[in-house]
Fold this sequence. Notes:
9-stranded mixed beta sheet, alpha+beta, elongated, 2 domains, single chain
Amino acid sequence: MTGQNIIDRFELQVDDLTEMSSTEELAILNRVYKRVCSQMPWEFLKKQDSGSISQDSDGYYITKPSDFLYFSENGNYTDNSTEWQGNSASRVIFVGSSYTPIKIVNFSDRRQYRDSAGYAYLDLVNDQIRFTADPQESTYEFDYIYLPDDLTTATSPVFPSNFHDFLAYGMAVENDILQLSEKARSYVGENTIKFEEDLANMKYWNSNQRHE
């Protein structure tokens, strides 16, 4: 379904809101869409970044991708007889042709790892991923969760089409819609249940895309 298809379905749930412009309806759709996409590390939002490591007077760094939301776990083994060697989440940057793992540490912990090889941290303010020491390699690769572009009336959500409908139910229970539509207020319970049921179904589908 396109953004317009979802808006048309939404209008059926609340009656056509003549007081609301198409721009306002699209803004509400994107608010619900982005909230859903930000809920968890969906498999359909996993993305790879790769390139060359940069250097400045402060050391070595990677420019954070513009659509970066947060790092994705990428150091695990599907074979459950092999375990990640470490006490924290398995989020790493692979460097060089041998894919040597560089462990991601918290920004607040970076000073404990200063001048120590094998670590990096996210500097959100400067849109950089900084290495605590010379990585000894010139290339990198890592996985992350990205935030998709806003929907337009002609584009579709990035998740499977059989789940697109529930965004219309999510729109119908937004507060600004409830203030305008008597029908939305009357069906707020039903629309909330439908939205939450379909979201749960998509989470179950997502869990089956992983092989653990």
